[in-house]
Amino acid sequence: MRLDVQPWGETMAELVAAARAAESAGAGVVWAPELHRSAFTTAAALACGTGKDSGGQNRIGIGTGIALAFARSPMLTALAAADLDELSEGRFRLGLGTGVARLNQDWHGTEFERPVPRLRDTVAIVRKVLAGASTGEPIVHRGVRSIRVRGWRRPYPPVRPHIPVYLAGVGPAMVALAGEVADGWIAHELCPPSELRDRIRPALRSGLARSASFDVVAAACCSVDPDPAVARRRAAGVVGFYASVRSYAEMFGTAGFGAVCAAAAGALRSGRPADSLGDLVPDEMVDAYTIAGTASDCAVRIAAYDGLADAIKLSPPSYGLPADEVRAAQNHLLELVGGMQ
């Protein structure tokens, strides 16, 4: 199973340095998220900052994990993907996801109706643009999202004829869409092995049957520290953040943690600082949704994904933590990745 990393950095320079450290540790792909930075800008920095010292052998992949699919036009997304594949010399993977309704409508002023067919059309248009940009042929697609391009040609040949497209999704219809139209699926950060086994892999069956190379990427907040209590405390902030978000209430409630969700949401409404939500999360909830503990503890927990996923995207805990603590947690994580190769 491939070990991927979602690096953290207080500055872009630190983020790139973390990606280089991940490459030296033997990580397979570094993924750029989209919340506090643009996923595409971050991926460009990672593409330019890695792959220089490996002699062209086994250079680390670069991916957006994930970029918001509806916040940009599909054509701009395709052009960004082509540019990033050029910058990375063919190492790029385009990860897309919808985000939640409020994020799209309130933050980005974009539509969110019918997200599954909208994402299906986004992938179709991106692929049509990538395939046809250098030919000068018309690029046409009609659907929830449409495009009609005539009389235009991108005067640069693509590095590769096909850039892998990954979709993120939690709901069954979105996961099934990934299996149907994508080259891979990327998990939510809180995705235990049982979720992969019981719900995700059955929903991905069309993709797994269609292509032996379909890439299932699990994901986890991985909090490593010599003191397991410190590791759990750091990881609790991640769980507390998601517990406060209404979109995840059903997932947590089904697992018996509905009271924690209600407490976290109520705490936010009452004005409690978001960085204190981890105090509401019990250890059993941390253990259920994150990988936290000593290096040997975490290695065992990571191994539980083997056979269920082709890769696992590991990220250090960061919610509600000062930069020095995130930095320490990331250093321990990268040491673990290097030790597991």
Secondary structure topology:
Layout: E1 2-5, H1 12-25, E2 29-32, H2 39-49, E3 61-64, E4 67-68, H3 74-87, E5 92-97, H4 101-107, H5 115-132, E6 139-141, E7 147-149, E8 165-168, H6 172-181, E9 184-186, H7 193-203, H8 205-210, E10 215-224, H9 228-243, H10 249-254, H11 258-269, H12 283-289, E11 291-293, H13 295-303, E12 311-315, H14 323-339
Parallel strand pairs: 1-12, 2-3, 3-5, 4-5, 5-8, 8-9, 9-10, 10-11, 10-12
Antiparallel strand pairs: 6-7
Helix pairs in contact: 1-2, 1-14, 2-3, 3-5, 5-6, 9-11, 9-12
Commentary on this structure:
The chain starts with a strand and ends with a helix. Strands 1, 2, 3, 4, 5, 8, 9, 10, 11 and 12 form a ten-stranded parallel β-sheet that branches. A two-stranded antiparallel sheet has the order 6-7. The protein is built from 14 helices and twelve strands. The model has no long low-confidence stretch (mean pLDDT 95). Helices cover 46% and strands 15% of the residues. The chain has a single domain (2-226, 291-339), classed as TIM Barrel (Alpha-Beta Barrel). The chain has helices at residues 12-25, 39-49, 74-87, 101-107, 115-132, 172-181, 193-203, 205-210, 228-243, 249-254, 258-269, 283-289, 295-303, 323-339; strands at 2-5, 29-32, 61-64, 67-68, 92-97, 139-141, 147-149, 165-168, 184-186, 215-224, 291-293, 311-315. It is an alpha/beta fold and 341 residues long. The longest helix is centred in the middle third of the chain and has 18 residues, at 115-132.
